[in-house]
Design a protein that fits this description.
By secondary structure, this protein is an alpha+beta fold. The protein has 5 helices and 6 strands; from the N terminus they run βαββαββαβαα. A 6-stranded antiparallel beta sheet has the order 5-1-2-3-4-6. α3 packs antiparallel against α4.
């Protein structure tokens, strides 16, 4: 089992208190040209299976100093998502190197993000531990951003298969 860390070291503030847990969807990244245009169109049309999913943690504003209120984002994607070889591997459902990303976000997006529950004060640490143990060989449809999102949300909130629940609720 291999594990990848963030390409650049970033100190992540971990405020005390509860975290609101969100799932967000963004367009899949693809090589420039027709593939990228197709992914953007799929996202615009809300095609559920052609979106990239991630987990966002927002600290409780009532218990967090203003400067530490940035949300934390955790996701799993191909190491080089815009590489043509990655696109071929995705289509053939072959293993490709993946990377777990951790970063900050100033605010939760207004579109295509859904509140899925609350987690206790060590949610950032729990997400870090989960991410460190996550196997980074990516296989679309078998071990990808959806599996990562479902697994991390389950660790943080106890809710299983959150993406299935959101999809069946029509939250596209």
């Amino acid at each position: 089992m291999s594990s990848a860390s963030t390409p650049t070291a970033v100190a992540v503030a971990r405020p005390a208190g509860r975290y609101a847990v969100y799932v967000a969807a963004v367009p899949l990244r693809a090589p420039q040209g027709p593939a990228q245009a197709m992914m953007s169109s799929a996202y615009s049309l809300c095609l559920w299976d052609l979106q990239h999913f991630m987990v966002l943690l927002r600290p409780d504003p009532a218990r967090t100093p203003t400067r530490a209120q940035e949300s934390l984002v955790f996701d799993f994607q191909p190491r080089h998502p815009e590489d043509a070889l990655a696109a071929f591997s995705v289509l053939s459902r072959s293993k490709i190197p993946g990377v777990v990303r951790r970063r900050r976000l100033r605010r939760i997006p207004d579109r295509r993000s859904w509140f899925v529950g609350l987690s206790d004060g060590d949610a950032a640490d729990a997400a870090e531990r989960f991410s460190e143990r996550w196997p980074t060989d990516l296989v679309v449809g078998n071990h990808d951003c959806r599996d990562y999102t479902n697994g991390l949300v389950e660790v943080l909130t106890g809710q299983k298969r959150v993406l299935d629940a959101l999809r069946s609720a029509g939250r596209q």
